Amino acid sequence: MSKIAIVTGGAKGIGYGSTKRLLDDGATVIMFDVDEAGLSKAQGELASHGERISGVKVDISSDTQVKAAIESVGNKYGHIDYVVNCAGIQTYGTAVETSEDTWDKTFDVNVKSMYLTAKYAIPFMRKAKGGSIVNISSVQSLANQKGVVAYAASKGAINSLTRAIAIDHAAEQIRCNAILPASVDTPMLRASARAFSSTRSEEDILQEWGSSHPIGRMATIHEIGELVGFLCSDKASFITGSSYVIDGGLMTQVPVILPD
């Protein structure tokens, strides 16, 4: 029987890469995304998977919308096996520069959404006698650039939320893990590059960001999707409460470079 998976932010970026991997593994995937046009485009590109792919427009920071969307999926299929939380936003600013509205929106989209999907999906995972939740965090939860105070704090909160959910539901065979990527070539990252490209090209900035990783490039969405697929699968059945860094060696690098 096909596994039932919800992927938030599934229409693009890491969510799209995760959706493709889960479809390749035989799962039925329901993409949640606020971008209705993006959902239509993704469904068209994945149409060869037939009824195993669908999309729902959802504001994942809204309790009522998340509850209704998850209950619709759970009631249709009788259970839910996987939730992959990829939806998120990038915000910039120091503590002094960040408005309360920006802080609240960052936490609503990046953190509250993951609490909401767990709250409403776990009862349907119980019907399946287990399940897997994968939360997309960031290496910014461990070490920070300047000027990303709300974003970095939200990603640290995701790591703590992941551990709390894992320990609360381990005895029910419901696992919860986090993935902490470094730079990934996504529409969100490219939008950030454009925001800083007043004197340089977007591609120049992306090349610089990629070259800062010891492996010499950014990750692809499909590389993150591979780890998502593993953590959802029974191959990871003894793994819960963990945070997986996938960063091309970025966090192992001392920033002082010795001369040749």
**CATH level 4 superfamily of the largest domain:** NAD(P)-binding Rossmann-like Domain
For the largest beta sheet, what order do the strands appear in spatially? 3-2-1-4-5-6-7
Give a short account of the largest sheet. Answer: 7 strands, parallel
**CA gyration radius, whole angstroms:** 18 Å
Please name the CATH architecture of the largest domain: 3-Layer(aba) Sandwich
Order of helices and strands: EHEHEHEHEHEHHHE
> End-to-end span in angstroms?
57 Å
Structural class: alpha/beta
Oligomer: single chain
Low-confidence stretches: none
- How many domains make up the 3D coordinates? 2
What would you note in describing this structure?
With 260 residues, the protein is of the alpha/beta class. It has 2 domains: 4-182 and 220-245, NAD(P)-binding Rossmann-like Domain (Rossmann fold), CATH 3.40.50.720; 183-218, no CATH class. The protein has helices at residues 13-24, 36-45, 63-77, 100-127, 149-169, 187-195, 202-211, 221-232, and strands at residues 4-8, 28-33, 53-57, 82-85, 131-136, 174-181, 243-246. Helix 1 (13-24) links the parallel strand 1 (4-8) and strand 2 (28-33). The chain is globular, with a radius of gyration of 18 Å. 44% of the residues are buried. One of its GO terms (molecular function) is oxidoreductase activity. InterPro entries: NAD(P)-bd_dom_sf, Sc_DH/Rdtase_CS, SDR_DHRS6-like, SDR_fam. Belongs to the short-chain dehydrogenases/reductases (SDR) family.
